[in-house]
Amino acid sequence: MRGWTTRDIPDLRGRRAIVTGANSGLGYHTALQLARRGAAVVLACRSAERGRTALDRIRTAAPGADVELGSLDLADLASVRAFAARYGEEPLDLLVNNAGVMAIPHRTTADGFEMQFGTNHLGHFALTGLLLPALRSAPSPRVVTLTSAFAWSGRIDFDDLQSERRYRKWAAYAQSKLANLVFAKELDRRIAEVTSVAAHPGYAATNLQQTGPRMQGSRLLEKIVGIGNAVVAQSAAAGALPSLYAATAPDVHGGACYGPRLLQYRGAPTEVVTPPQANRAGQAERLWDVSETLTGVAYAAAAS
């Protein structure tokens, strides 16, 4: 049986989408395919230079595509608010919370949060909440939040969410990706008008894996990771398929997670099993309350 591919994406003309981190990797390929099928796509990027390059590439690959570049730094809540004010006035059919950082040396966001938790989870939590009125005004809105297989090893440490006592880069990354998954499920439970799902790419070759070693100044580790990407990983285009499936397939249902078919590692997208800690009693409610407090974005207020 043929697996799901970009050929199965339905006609998206008349639909409006925002993809965070669309300048490269999974985000770029997600935005490209949405634009090819007729969606009006906003590339939400931190780097204006890389964003313009991606914009030009999409316009070349998909002549006539309705794409524009928006400035968004998820590690700065002022930037998140400015972006939402700029792009939240019209109905929004699709939000793909794709951008992220992985296993980087200890850094903090503009608001003082640990960078991985602050960018991967809190930035997207705030963005989604601020765009909630735009989503609710669309006929069948969908939010796709990117998680990772690392969520299986994740634990949300409410006593040290910002890794102030001890910072371990991979543990912090796993926590942020588990938080993404918990958020996607809880958003679907709380906001009936919005279909919220999670997706993950398996092992896909993007620049995400090499950023951490590069920031550490480890050329050897950067080279090793690059070899692994070239030899073992599937392409970024293939890794974007679960996101695209979650964003466009008609049989997608809220609260689910979509990833590669083969051991959640590679292959055609399908619904996948999620780690048991993603459904821990009371965890989603606690994470939601903490996230509203830290970001200052209250979903009840945003919805009104």
From TrEMBL:
GO molecular function, one term: oxidoreductase activity
Keyword Repeat among UniProt keywords: no
Name used for this protein in its record: NAD(P)-dependent dehydrogenase (Short-subunit alcohol dehydrogenase family)
InterPro entries per UniProt: NAD(P)-bd_dom_sf (IPR036291), SDR_fam (IPR002347)
The keyword Nucleotide-binding is annotated on this UniProt entry: no
Top-level taxon: Bacteria
UniProt organism field: Actinomadura hallensis
Alphabetical UniProt keywords: Oxidoreductase
CDD domains linked to this entry: retinol-DH_like_SDR_c_like (cd05327)
